[in-house]
Fold:
Amino acid sequence: MSETFIKELDDLYIRYGYEPRKNKSTRVYLFTKSIYNGADIVKTGTDEEAEMLKKQYADSGYAVKVRNFKNVEEAEDLLFKDFFKADGVIQNLKRRYETFVGKLMNNLPENAEYKYIRSSYEYTNYKLDQDDTKTISVGADDDSHALVSTITKQINEHEGPLLIILEAAAGYGKTCTAYEILNEFISIGSNKLPFFTELSRDRKASVFKHILAFEIEEQFSNRVDSNVVIHQIKKGRIPLIIDGFDELISKDFSFSSNQFEQVESMLSTIVDLLTDNAKVIITSRKTAIFNSEEFHNWMIDRDIDYTLSKVTISEPSIDNWLPKERLEIIQSNNFPVEQIANPVLLTYLRYVNMEELKEMGIEGKSIVDRYFDFLLSREQTRQGLLIEPETQLRIFRKLVRFLTEWDVKAESKEFIKDLILDYNKTILEETKKKYTPDKRPRIDQLADILSNHAFLDRKEKGMIGIVNEFVFGTLIGENLIMGKYLQYSETFYEKLSQMFALLAIQAYQVQPKENKEELWNVFNTYTFPFDPQFYFKIDIEFKNEIIRNYKHAILNDFNLDTYSFTKKGQFESTIFTACTFTNCEFSFEAFKNSSFVNCRFFNCQLIDNGVAYSDSYFTVFGCTGDNEFVQNIFDYEDAEINEDLNIEKEILDLYFQIGGLKPRHRQLSYIKNELSGINYKSVSKSLHKLETNGIIQFNGDLSFLTRQGISYYNDKYKNS
Structure:
């Protein structure tokens, strides 16, 4: 055996915690960090010597294994299986998955059986040396590209570092999908073993690097050193699944902004792992970060040859969740479909008793109220709890108010119990009197019962939080509407995180119209410091019209059907990016110094009200449509051409830093601002031509030079 092989073998065994022993030409490695002592004898010498050493160490009480490796890779595979694929590790992961499923089933009718409901999704694969970054849409019924199996296959087969970002709105299946990926891995006999961690927003959560180290210690305690786990993550044998990336982002972060510096530290820890053959999956609520030029250019600067796969899970389709018979009952009762398009409610409707389903919509009670009544009434039976449903709601509304005021989602069980006890003593004392003397609990025992309520769920590190974001958001919304935040702080609107406000908005999408109206009024009565994207969202989703005026706003990724953009001066210095407009009307006077960047227009009309076009109204950059809408904008007025200025060169120069050799990613909205001194229409036409000719490519608001574009720029401008 060569000296190189021996050295690599020694390094490998030392990494796993073995102590090498030199015995003539045969290598012996001792493991003494467990309840038993083990000895690996590797045949690097004669068979006779190996047998002699085997007897010697066996007689000394060691569990001896004789190994014969062809190369170091074979040795590493075997050690990985011994340490990581042990039955104990696999069983722990299976129990973790089963516990998660059990928690979901606890809040459903008795006959419920767990089934992962597939959703449609969009994905974009991005790689530094590839030009094709088109976004592909996949339907929920597409068996050949089902989301879980597609991601699992990608992790198993992809060569090189891979970062998968799984995005969705709150409560739309990110965590379920992450657990299904975990389960598929441990079920198919893969030679890889996932490492799964859930992040929670609590007062102790701080530096992600430390949290990751703690989670590694927890999952692989007493087995291997954390450095071995990190090494195997980099090698790709341990795919890393991080659920809830957004949970550690600070309170003031806006999910429609590109405040990349707020997540740079977290991403640095993740990116440090993206070497060799690493596979990392992170789930997050939808955010503009991963479409920003700051993120992509930061990755370019790190000089990592990796692939980024961004997956966005779509809103649930009712047809995929409910069998035909149940759907027909709902439709026959004229029950508002918009009041059930939420995964939590759809799961409830999937399993609720058929007789109860037939009654829904007849009594005029909302499905949300029915779902909450079901949970709260069942707690009375399950725990022998003599507290009426409405009083239970009061207790948990109060708890949610405390959590959101502290900007956390989880706390220790003891702390939750103490909160319930300290702030509900009158309720608990009155409840105690309802029990017969022989069964009467103390009020601290009642608080303990409530700390095990169906509204609460155990999170990571033994923390307790609200069971799901739908319940959490509903209780936040109720606190806002009932004035509970205002009751305890006249400036509550300055402190409430936009993240929690968005949870309320998401949950209230399935509320009756009058409840939506009340929540909309709260957000429009007080001056919450939220971004324009938030207010545009609640206008669209709660009022179905554009109410307020917008100035210096960036509105991203909206699907707008049958809206009118004709109110004079409604949008000033506003940029629409990656939006889809269908059957919409536009007039020039509604806009001032505004633009549409990489948007799509279907069957849209430009209202001719006699106003002559000027790019002081609006311009379009990289937009497409199915009729003449976009071309009409170009044709309305010829741009004034400055023959002394090469606009194409001005645009292409922006993709390079001064003195830099590598092209940068640029957001089209930034390009527009940096070229504000040039006629907007000329810039728009030049961008359109560059994209048509394959020089640049658009992906949402993001754009970059193709390989053809780099050659074109070098030949025509840089080297000329």
